[in-house]
Amino acid sequence: MFFGRLTWVCLCLIGAISAQAQLEMPPKEVESDWYITWGYNRSMYTPSTVHMWGTGPTGQAFDVTLHDVTSKDMPERFQAKVYFHPGLFTIPQFNARFGKRISDRWVVSAGWDHMKYKLEKQWAQADGFAAATDFIDESMDGVELAWAGDSLYWGSGFNFEHSDGMNFVRFSLEHEQALWAPAGREFSLRMFEAAGAGVVVCSTDFRWAGERYKNPQHISGLGMSVLAGFRANVHRRFFIQTSAQFGAVTLPWIRVQGPTDAGATQQIGFAEAAFALGYRIGDSRRPH
Q1: Residue 22 CB burial class (10 angstroms; 0-12, 13-18, ≥19)
Q2: Residue 13 phi/psi, 5° resolution?
Q3: Out of 192, 244, 246, 262, which could bridge 54 as a Cys pair, Cβ 3.0 to 4.6 Å?
């Protein structure tokens, strides 16, 4: 499975980073500066299998698994009244992060990747059961539909999205190296790689047979990722950053109808491209 393969990739990257650390000469002076970044992302997701269960509007139970369903992210179009509003600027798909330099090339960091996920309207292979009134006709009260690899249309009246969002609270070990650092100038270009893991906090907007449930943020699972990118220092304190991240999350504790017996599970692979602005705190000497 994708999550299992990514586990091995993360372990291999951490092992390679640790091995390189053993080979590097210790720096003469350990940097002690911190950094913070703020930026925005776009994400893509692998097809996934979603298992959901709960109670429909008529009180009849449903338990349905949708196989290999496709999804998309939910970027907020640029509006100054959203992106620069102190109460709304967290609505877009943002990345916030802070890090602590522990040596010349090593950084530990923690942050919040605010991604968004939405199942697309589609025909899907399904297993399970639900009330006929949920899909066909209100007059069919008490009749149950069953699927065993049959097609089911996930469309009008049904929705499954982590729209506030699929928040990856990630802790990472980063390795930096200079690509271009002209002597006597504040500008420099650095490359960085990272491996990280953390918890995933979802706020799931769920609709079943026309009945909507907007669930508050809840720890829904775990995730891990690998990342690489570039940092361009334009001042001893300011830098801009671009990165590409690849990871997977496993979500066994999704809430779809509040803190009840209802729920959902899924595993998702993702790729994320991000752009951020950064600021260094502490040691003000020119990065090298």
Answers
A1: exposed
A2: -65, -45
A3: 262
pLDDT-derived band at 78, boundaries 50, 70, 90: confident
Give me the pLDDT at residue 29, please: 38
| All domains in the chain, ordered by first residue | 2-281 (2.40.160.20)
pLDDT at 24: 43
Contact 112, 37 (CB under 8 A): no
In which band, very low, low, confident or very high, does the pLDDT at 184 lie, cut at 50, 70 and 90?
low
pLDDT at 186: 74
Asked if residues 219 and 201 have their Cβ atoms less than 8 Å apart, the reply is: yes
